[in-house]
Amino acid sequence: MTTINLPWPPSINHYWRRVGNRTLISKAGRDYRARVIAHVTYCHPRLEKYTGRLSVRIRAHAPDRRRRDLDNIPKAILDAVTHAGVWLDDEQIDDLHIVRGEVVTPGFVTVEVGEL
Predict the structure, then answer these.
(1) What gap in Å lies between CA 78 and CA 85, rounded to an integer?
(2) CA dihedral of 85, 82, 35, 38, whole degrees rounded to 10
């Protein structure tokens, strides 16, 4: 089991941008991905990439008391953690849980990853 604390992700509404007939990851999404890659590289330098089927639990500590849908949070996190090399592809996740934690400024998420 690996536990990774990450910064609060951009909302899914700010993660994607439509440019003409293409949908791209926004600057906020690219910046978040880069921060996650840097964090994982620095804080977990010897982490071996998970190759099997996975269980992932996310605890979301919002930065404030605004109303948020929990189902909008995982996409940016899973995408960034994939690019950080924690696993091969988020298709490996068979068991995904997300729970709301207490409000903590500036907000963060805890991601627990384990093989099934």
Answers:
(1) 11
(2) 0
CATH superfamily to which 2-115 belongs: Holliday junction resolvase RusA (3.30.1330.70)
Domains of the chain by residue range: 2-115
Q: How many CB atoms lie within 10 A of CB 102?
A: 7
pTM for the whole structure: 0.92
pLDDT tens, residue by residue, 79-112: 999 999 999 999 999 999 999 999 999 999 999 9
* Distant-in-sequence, close-in-space partners of 101: CB < 8 Å, separation ≥ 6: 59, 60, 61, 62, 110
